[in-house]
Amino acid sequence: MTGYRQVLAVPGLASLLGVSLLARTAITADVMALTMYVVLGLGMSYTAAGGVAAALTAGVALGGPLLGGMIDRRGLRAVLLVTIGAQVVFWLSVPALPYGLLLGAAFAAGLLMVPAQPVTRQAIAAMTTAGQRRAAFALESVQGELSYIVGPAIVILCAANLSPGVVAWGVGAAIVVGGAGIALLDPPLRAADEAGAGAAGRPPRREWLGSGMIAVLTMAFGTTMLLGGIDLAIVAALEEAGQVSWAAAVVTVLGVTSVIGGLVYGALSRSLPTWLLLGLLGLLTVPAGLAHDWRWLCVAVVGSGLLTAPTLSTLADAVSRLAPASVRGEATGLQSSALSAGFALGAPVAGIAIDASAPAGGFAAAGLAGVAAALTGLLLSRRSPARTRSPLGGPGLAGAPGPEPRGADARPGVSP
């Protein structure tokens, strides 16, 4: 735990993680809040609610690199002020919007969503040394898992006692407060030795968006495609067993074991390649379809849970290593887009497999998607060795083991 104490002792980092957790929990709950509003407030179908959720998700996926590029050019506070203002307008107007306008407004709100997750990752890369980064990104991944466990659950509980419009306002208020907190903290997004990166100009995309970065983005997409598919497969398996009410318990086990896995991984002395972690995650997901009872399913998802946060943390670490400081915002935005796109596609692909075979097919489809992404990432990372190594000589891809740079100011991902 010494590594975690050192990370939390970095000035400003503990505060940033706390404020970011509030924003990310609310952002994680926004789809559920809009679903409840459409179904309960407007009295429409879940299909209609899915349309609003899809519009919001599409906006987030497209807006990630755009906002990241704006942060690189204009600075953090300017972008946060724009996105906070957009969220205030959207969430205040939700109860007054008819369905058609709500679709368009949800897309715009996603496009201008407060970039809490990518900003946190950028700040971690800037505020920590190479030796601290594994533990720091592990904490960031654990933070994400906690937001997924807590956010939607709070919305569901509140929806039972409050009007859906009030719940939507509450979620919007939390997003705004979290974004305002990040703006007040104004964390550094470039290290001291990277301060002149912006003045040197932005390198062409072909110089940093090479096979190594594409490999990381592919594996990010595959990871969340797996996670989106496994959630649906859990529900389908328990519905077939007549135990669908226990789905929340299984998902909770998956989330809690992911938190444990992230904390253990962050305390290790060496990192593992992302392709290996993702491949193992996929292989351990496939046999979960053999469980036909909620108790056995809780046991079956433990392996997947233990590898989820470590895989996500190495993805974030890889982007920080491969992206030059002057384009790190755009790079982390692309990562967020890849993660959002994977979640959006994972459930439909698993659903097709379930309808064509059985609930076990959903687990197989999700797991094999992860394995395919891991193999693709491995092949891409080996195509151009010169571009997949960090400027300091260690492998730059997704936490691949290599010599740690020495010295507190040695930071991977800095342009030579």
From TrEMBL:
Pfam families, A to Z: MFS_1 (PF07690)
Keywords: Membrane, Transmembrane, Transmembrane helix
Sequence intervals crossing the membrane: 35-63, 75-93, 166-185, 212-238, 244-265, 272-288, 294-316, 337-354, 360-380
GO molecular function: transmembrane transporter activity
Region described as Disordered: 385-416
The protein's name in its UniProt record: MFS family permease
Species this chain originates from: Actinomadura namibiensis
